[in-house]
Write a structure and sequence with these properties.
Blueprint lengths: L3 H10 L1 E7 L2 H16 L5 E3 L5 E5 L1 H4 L1 H7 L2 H11 L3 E13 L20 E6 L10 E3 L19 H6 L6 E3 L5 E6 L4 E3 L9 E9 L11 E5 L12
Length: 236
């Protein structure tokens, strides 16, 4: 599915817009269900400073459509080239849908603090993203930087601020239905939305099955392959 060059781009640069794409019908169904829950204020939700619902949480547990999308071939097939055949999604990390309203601007953040607890984040774009409406911004290669003490407000970390590295960020505009995989330790943020519209996206965290754990984690859902155990504490 992925070429050697695409795999290398993800490994070295830290992100990749996947070559596959959700079909228009699926995108419209996802948007319709999301707007239903946003307008109905179906908990759990997160509100912004204007008391608008800008995030619906526990996404995968809300409707089978969301879990079905997170485990469909359009995402799992390319991810298998990055994570291997045995893949789980996390319900206690990401697992939300976000609306980027006008005038919002995030600081840069990391999804995980350091490499030994990394995961692969997939952003599903349900609306076309541009520089004007706040497309994702990424600092290429920042997944190779040292660990940090905080997930958010990376500009407050002395060595990050003083390095000038955040000024190296690039904008990654994509079309509705496209998906971007990122290494969870890369520095990234949502851009400012200067339009009157929204920018809707789903965020799901993926990981390879933990081959050194023989206990099933109830906060992880197997979406491809099987749960394997490779510890040497049991007779083979």
């Amino acid at each position: 599915m992925l070429s050697v060059h695409q795999i290398n781009h993800f490994r070295q640069i830290g992100y990749l817009v996947l070559p596959t794409r959700l079909d228009t019908s699926r995108v419209e169904r996802l948007k319709a269900k999301a707007w239903e829950d946003v307008k109905g204020e179906v908990d759990p939700v997160v509100r912004d400073s204007d008391e608008r619902v800008h995030r619906i949480s526990a996404l995968l547990q809300r409707d089978t459509l969301f879990l079905e999308t997170a485990s469909c071939p359009d995402v799992i097939e390319p991810l298998a080239d990055l994570l291997g055949p045995n893949i789980e999604v996390l319900t206690n990390r990401h697992n939300h849908l976000t609306l980027n309203y006008a005038s919002q601007q995030d600081d840069f953040h990391r999804d995980t603090l350091q490499w030994s607890r990394s995961l692969l984040t997939v952003i599903f774009y349900l609306e076309t993203t541009t520089i004007e409406n706040g497309c994702t911004q990424i600092v290429p290669g920042s997944h190779m930087y040292p660990g940090v003490e905080v997930h958010h407000r990376l500009s407050s970390v002395d060595w990050v601020r003083d390095s000038g590295l955040l000024d190296q960020a690039v904008h990654v505009p994509v079309q509705a239905g496209q998906m971007m995989a990122i290494n969870s330790t890369i520095f990234h943020r949502i851009g400012a939305n200067s339009t009157g519209g929204t920018r809707m996206s789903m965020t799901v965290g993926y990981t390879s099955v933990d081959e050194f754990s023989d206990a099933q984690n109830p906060k992880r859902i197997l979406v491809a392959g099987e749960r394997i155990y490779g510890g040497n504490d049991k007779a083979s």
